[in-house]
Amino acid sequence: MKNLAFIQRNDTRFAVGDFSPVLSIFSYHDLGSTVSPFLLLDHIGPGRLLPSTQRKGVNDHPHRGFETVTIVYAGELEHRDSSGGGGIISAGDVQWMTAAAGIIHQERFSEGFTQSGGRFEMVQLWVNLPAADKMGPPRYQSLARAAIPVLELPDGAGSVRIIAGTHQGVAGPAQTHTRMNVLDVQLNAGQSAIFDSAEGDTALVYLLSGRLLFDKDQALEEQGLAVLSQQGAGVSVTATENSRLLVLSGERIDEPINGHGPFVMNSYEEILQAYDDVKNGRLGPGTAS
Ligand code: MN
Description:
This protein has helices at residues 28-31, 111-116, 268-279; strands at residues 4-8, 13-16, 19-27, 38-49, 57-63, 66-74, 77-81, 86-89, 94-98, 103-109, 118-128, 139-143, 150-152, 158-164, 166-167, 170-171, 180-187, 192-195, 202-209, 211-214, 218-221, 225-228, 235-239, 243-250, 258-260, 263-265. By secondary structure, it is mainly β. The longest helix is centred in the C-terminal third of the chain and has 12 residues, at 268-279. Manganese (II) ion binds next to strand 5 and strand 10.
């Protein structure tokens, strides 16, 4: 079994565009390749949106070199990109966007949710791409709630939504460039569960709400991140309160990481190239070579 290596906590909330509060759970800026193939995780909300006519969100911005995975727990987002593509991401849905060579998009609350208002909560995970795929074609995977398998844990312990990878032989719908598991888990108080994670793989547990124990007596409080050892196989957790957690595990990408703002590449030259391409209209759908 993997052991707890350390707990990462950051209690500073900020705004991204006019989404707030946003909690930065982890970033490769702080943790480098420790979290590879994952780069960053933001928790948006929980919060309550008042009914309005002004749509909140993040206006047009580019991405290159990685993927963004948006999991909506409550509320509704609308995504739109510079090619005219777009869609609605409702509670339970996941959008797996491969920016690769480049996308320019906006992410805002949907018109319907803006009018009705209500509770919102979502996370956005950034997943790195191997160097060979960083300049590949952009792609969207809209994973509707109904397309994501839910596995009930034995003895009413909770449930696992398999977004990517597998749990107990059941595969999730996301197509990934490297091997990984992304599991959205509910675990009831007093219950334990074990999740697959291979020897040598990165394994992370983000606790959205509740309280967990690792290695029998190491507590993880809500909105904290547990980083597990690369050594050992499998992740074992026990909930001491009803808990909602994301279990992220995957094969590491052992390549240099060079990122700035919305770009994550391998070298500084490639970052400068990305800014140059945005300036000259060479980054975005339809421009990938
Ligand atoms: Mn974005």
